[in-house]
TrEMBL record:
One of its GO terms (cellular component) is cytoplasm. Gene3D superfamilies: Glycogen Phosphorylase B. Its cofactor is pyridoxal 5'-phosphate. This is Alpha-1,4 glucan phosphorylase.
Length: 819
């Protein structure tokens, strides 16, 4: 019997038998002695039997439907643990929980055994994961293409407050139970070598690339399970290997290292995820990763297209490719190459396909994140691609000349090749010139893309630049991570909301209902307790759940301004110790953040927060009013327990710098009130929840520009605001660290002598005011709870289902699979 929401016939007895079979035959464990971890693996494998079957079925349905598919190209998919979520999507959570109990275990304990597949850095990778979930939930034909990194984002720990990094072997020794190899889909990829011309039998001239190196792409599929439907779509991750395991002749000669060199070099290609967020590092291995990803994925798409019986000329009718940032841009010249050189299409015919296939999402305006590759490097690694890039650029220049005759300034600005000592290929320009749609990720950001980043492109290609505001999947970020709140909502408005988040608006009517407020507040308290228990157990810090839980969880970056948060904490510390009239509601500041290993100031900020935490958490003079917790090794599974416990959500980037943010959406959905600048999606959150239910502060984008143009001087703010001065001075007087205060003085130096590039000092006073309002308003619990309910009720817009529908309607033009 199937119950409502359940997609599968479920037979408990045979499921239990399957788990035991996997425990013994797949993992070679004795039933009597197997650990929780092996039981989790066996449960995962037994469930994967269901999803793999459905994956193959869905592939057939897609082929039969003969409609367009979206291929989401991303170097990052920060999927987080899959098992719990997949159970929800399959509609089998209770059944499996029961089966596991009968086997003698708690499902929640087994789920804790799963290592997060950390195949992304932050927002960009997590967005890709939410989008895959929403594509499957709405049954839009889709494939996610990424890399099968052997090691995900590094694991972070703290040693005397300093960040330490370790490799993250997310697949562990046993492999990841949800993935399945697809050997029939493996591909070969060339690199280096040269290009030659030849004339075919009909007298046509062609170019041919003769690569010097060949790599093999091994296809691994992870199942993306549609929410309570039968569809499962692949997240296809490519692992790099050498086509031959080792050189037998060298091995026989006793050159054991030399015999394996090729394999070692190939293995390096997908060894690690580059740990940079909003920063481009320009390493050869990174370009190799990008090309390897694109070449395998393009080859896979074309194989599928031809296998389904279509002509190569109809490719763009059946396949769209979304480039998640510029990282997979090399797919554009790669598809051109395949069409020109392998399929012998003319330039115009090939371009007609390419320019209707690709669309590109921009995720940042930060100049240091906009990718450029040295022309010489591309020429060496991918000589044919460089020729094609030159030709695309030549044709772009012709178009510009036609629109702005004789205007070399515009040509220089829009050119794909940046002139200079060493010529560079600008990947964003290549994207805008070659795709049919370019989108920013929130309304404000998309406006700035048009106004500041690509104004001339906007004139040259009217309508190409668009907006799609980001979103988050409500299945993971409410139903799964906050089961009690989900149950309360379902009790009031029914159970359809996880697939139709706009329905949450109906709970707004209960915002002033005392009973509902009490239940809502009780759930928040229980979630705070769950997190406090975790902190007590793992970090040995006691938290009072009556305190305000104030959360800033995101990558550590100057533009995100964790140091503004820190300065505010220092101001509270100063006032508590020096101002007898000062009173505050107990407040816990919770941080979690990884810093890119090469980002020195970000690491200094982590260190400083850790040191301040040590001091304030143990200072009896503060009467427990102020606590600071820096949770190490931030990851999706930690976000799942921090977010439901948050009262306040810190979204405090310098206006114009945070393209969207998505943590802001997750926190608001779980009833945290935002303290934020008018930046990224904060602007739209404010529009939805209303000014009374959010704490907005700080300079606007135009103020920031004006201030910078006038010549911003942080010293003026330092001198004029005594609280700011006192707080900054605390950075420099050994208060928190008697032995190694370099980190503190680096921060201080950056803010004063370094010119304070992200205007921390300029926004400090208003930030403190906003915090004072929070302190006052939190004391009126009835009002506060009303606001938190309204936040949950009014952020339905930020479901990634809506984002996906925007892409589908305005960019991809897909139809959902027929039932
Ligand atoms: C991030 C943005 O910083 C964030 O605001 C946004 O929510 C997220 O993308 C998803 O759209 N951008 C990046 O992570 C980014 O641009 N990274 C690569 C360029 C290095």
């Amino acid at each position: 019997m199937k119950k409502r929401g359940q997609t599968q016939q479920f037979d408990k007895a045979s499921f239990k038998a399957s788990v035991k079979k996997h425990l013994v035959t797949t993992y070679a464990q004795n039933i009597e002695t197997a650990s929780d971890k092996h039981w989790y693996l066996a449960v995962g494998k037994a469930l994967a039997e269901i999803s793999t079957g459905n994956l193959l079925e869905t592939e057939k349905r897609v082929a039969n439907a003969k409609t367009r598919s979206i291929n989401y190209f991303s170097l990052e998919f920060l999927i987080g643990r899959l098992t719990g979520n997949n159970l929800i999507s399959l509609g089998l959570y209770e059944e499996i929980s029961e089966a596991v109990t009968e086997l003698g275990f708690q499902l929640t304990d087994l789920l804790e055994q799963e290592r997060d597949p950390a195949l992304g850095n932050g927002g960009l990778g997590r967005l890709a994961a939410c989008f895959m979930d929403s594509l499957a939930a709405q049954e839009f034909p889709s494939v996610g293409y990424g890399l099968h990194y052997q090691y995900g984002l590094f694991q972070q720990s703290f040693l005397n407050g300093h960040q330490i990094e370790f490799p993250d072997a997310w697949r562990e020794a046993e492999g990841y139970p949800w993935e399945v190899q697809r050997p029939e889909l493996n591909q070969f990829v060339g690199l280096y070598g040269d290009v030659s011309s030849y004339t075919d039998d009909e007298g046509q001239q062609h170019r041919r690339w003769n690569p010097a190196v060949t790599l093999q792409g091994i296809a691994w599929d992870l199942p993306i399970i549609g929410y309570q439907n039968q569809s499962v779509f692949p997240l296809r991750l490519w692992e790099c290997r050498a086509p031959v395991p080792f050189n037998l002749a060298k091995f026989n000669d006793g050159d054991y290292v030399g015999a394996q060199q090729t394999q070692i070099a190939a293995g390096n290609v997908t060894k690690i995820l580059y740990p940079n967020d909003n920063h481009d590092q320009g390493k050869v291995l990174r370009l190799t990763q990008q090309y390897f990803h694109c070449a395998c994925s393009i080859a896979d798409i074309i194989c599928r297209h031809l296998k389904n019986g279509h002509e190569i000329n109809s490719l763009s009718k059946f396949e769209a490719i979304q480039l998640n940032d510029t990282h997979p841009t090399i797919a554009i010249p790669e598809l051109m190459r395949v069409l020109l050189d392998d399929h012998k299409l003319s330039w115009d015919d090939a371009w007609a396909i390419v320019s209707k296939t690709f669309a590109y999402t921009n995720h940042t305006l930060l100049p240091e994140a906009l990718e450029t590759w040295s022309e010489a490097l591309i020429g060496e690694l991918l000589p044919r691609h460089l020729e094609i890039i030159f030709e695309i650029n030549h044709r772009l220049m012709v178009q510009i000349e036609a629109k702005w005759p004789g205007n070399n300034e515009i040509k220089r600005k829009l050119s794909i090749i940046a002139e200079g000592q060493s010529r560079m290929v600008r990947m964003a320009n290549l994207c805008v010139a070659s795709t049919y749609a370019v989108n920013g990720v929130a309304a404000l950001h998309s406006e700035l893309v048009k106004r500041d980043l690509f104004p001339e492109f906007d004139e040259l290609f009217p309508g190409r630049l668009q907006n799609v505001t980001n979103g988050i999947t409500p299945r993971r970020w409410l139903k799964y991570c906050n089961p009690q709140l989900s149950a309360l909502i379902s009790e009031k408005i029914g159970t359809e909301w996880p697939a139709h988040l706009e329905q949450l608006e109906a709970i707004a009517q209960f915002a002033t209902d005392t009973k509902f407020q009490q239940r809502f507040a009780k759930i928040k308290k229980q979630n705070k307790q769950r997190f406090a228990d975790w902190v007590a157990e793992n970090l040995d810090i006691e938290l009072d759940t009556n305190a305000i839980f104030d959360v800033q969880i995101k990558r550590l970056h100057e533009y995100k301004r964790q140091h503004l948060n820190l300065l505010h904490i220092l101001s509270l510390y100063h006032r508590l110790l020096n101002d007898p009239t000062f009173d505050m509601h107990p407040h816990v500041f919770i941080f979690a953040a990884k810093a890119a290993p090469g980002y020195a100031l970000a690491k200094d900020i982590i260190y400083a927060i850790n040191k301040v935490a040590d001091k304030v958490n143990n200072d009896p003079r503060l009467n427990g009013k102020l606590k600071v917790v820096f949770v190490p090794d931030y990851r999706v599974s930690l976000a799942e327990i921090i977010i439901p416990a948050a009262d306040v959500s810190e979204q405090i980037s310098t206006a114009g710098k945070e393209a969207s943010g998505t943590g802001n959406m997750k926190l608001a959905l779980n009833g945290a009130l935002t303290i934020g600048t008018m930046d990224g999606a904060n602007v739209e959150i404010r529009e939805e929840v209303g000014d009374d239910n959010i704490f907005i502060f700080g300079l606007l984008v135009d103020d920031v520009e004006k201030l910078k143009a006038e010549g911003y001087n942080p010293h003026t703010y330092y001198e004029q605001n005594s609280l700011l001065k006192a707080s900054i001075d605390l950075l420099d007087n050994n208060e928190f660290d008697a032995t190694d205060c370099a980190a503190f003085s680096n921060i201080r130096h950056n803010l004063l002598e370094g010119g304070d590039p992200y205007l921390v000092l300029a926004d400090f006073a208003d930030y403190v005011n906003a915090h004072n309002r929070i302190d006052a308003e939190y004391r009126d619990q009835t009002q506060w709870v009303k606001k938190t309910i309204l936040n949950t009720a009014l952020v339905g817009k930020f479901s990634s289902d809506r984002s996906i529908r925007d892409y589908v309607n305005n960019i991809w033009h897909l139809t959902a699979l027929p039932k």
